[in-house]
Amino acid sequence: MTMGKTSTMSETIFRAAGRAGLMLGAAAMMAGPLAAQTPAANAANADDPGANANLDLPANPDILGAEPVSQFRGATAIVNGTIITGTDIDQRLALVLAANQNELSAEDQQRLRAQVLRNLIDETLQIQEARASELEVSNSEVEATYNRVAQQNFGMTPSDLDAYLYNVKSSPASMKQQIRGELSWQRILRRNIAPFINVSEEEVNERLDRLKADRGTEEYRLGEIFLSATSETKAEVQRQAQQIMEQLREGGSFVAYARQFSQASTAAVGGDLGWVRLAQLPPELAEAASQMQAGQLVGPVELRGGYSLLYLIDTRKVLMADKGETILSLKQISIDFPEGMSPDAAAKRANDFAQAVQQIDGCGAAESGAAAMGAQIVSNDNLRVKDLPPQLQETLLALPQGGITQPFGSAAEGVRVLMVCGRTDPAMAGGPTFDELMAQIEDERINKRAQIYLRDLRRDAVIDYN
């Protein structure tokens, strides 16, 4: 499941920044000779109308304020002649930091910088390969994707996203470059790899048969962040994986980290592997996933070729209806306790309430029954089971029509029960179609080839580090 890296996230901004740097450099060059001039030289200039024409400059100007700080940033790496600057790293790192809920230490940020640099090198190689293969992505394509990302991923207009990126100390240029890298890599894979992937009908039918044989077994929807490693880089990559894991546990966005750091092809979709069975996973990941609960993070898990961080999004059973998708119609009956009521009085009122609700004769009598005991009643006819508190899900699924839960709550929050007044069971899962399964197998093979392709690009590249 660990494949070649893709990622998503202007030249106009870049050019503007370049011009600003040049202008600051020119100002510094002008300031040096002026400060070094002697009084005689100043006097000579004063006598020469051409030297001061239309400017009316003082002979001995007093310089106010500190010397401007140069904005020049040297190359951090040069990839086949393409420069990656410290500013490029800073702005891409800012995207990660913006998705993190906790402030990182200087040491943590330095580790993330190293990973960001590696990602920028891969991205540069992908863009260069697309250009060499005459598959270069146009500026208009990048702009169209950027506008779509603004609306779909951020819920913003493009101009609002521009402002947001500047606010978090990134830039539209950084995100657009990331988009260019992703589109370039997708285009390369479509032309240089996908046409040479063959999946036979027998393979697809064999997998369909296995699916039917596995009916009722567990399926897992997993997110993965994969970091590739060689024998030389293994220790460093493991430290980086552990660092990312710590940031995720402290509230970092798994999707954001996957998009920025994962070197699997699923990085473009936030690391989502989709629904898989344990038999489809490498043994190391299968063992880890089998012990996970929904919402749990595990890792780093060592694999051949690198390390993975896993996030279990959900589980279901193969070719079975997902009971979590059951839609319930519920009535909630509740009572409150007056402030200052003694514990004994509250306990008696709760006990009386528990006995009274059990006497309500079905949903039709719920309103009148609640009124008789001085309780409040609220209805909701469209509640999905998996959206309810986990402690209540199995209880509600087991109740018949008109069934009532045991009372729950506290003296501070009140005591309540839920009554099941309707149920819509989910449709039986039909499993993937022949065409869907063939596409899945093709994607798996394309992703494996993509990892090898990117590895070869790295191996053949001339990369200078400063």
Automatic annotation (TrEMBL):
InterPro entries: OMP_Chaperone_SurA, PPIase_dom_sf, PPIase_PpiC, SurA_N, Trigger_fact/SurA_dom_sf. It comes from the Bacteria. PROSITE patterns: PPIC_PPIASE_2 (PS50198). Residues 1-31 form the signal peptide. GO terms for molecular function: peptidyl-prolyl cis-trans isomerase activity. Keywords: Chaperone, Isomerase, Periplasm, Rotamase, Signal. Residues 217-314 form the PpiC domain. It holds the Pfam family Rotamase. PANTHER family: CHAPERONE SURA (PTHR47637:SF1). This is Parvulin-like PPIase.
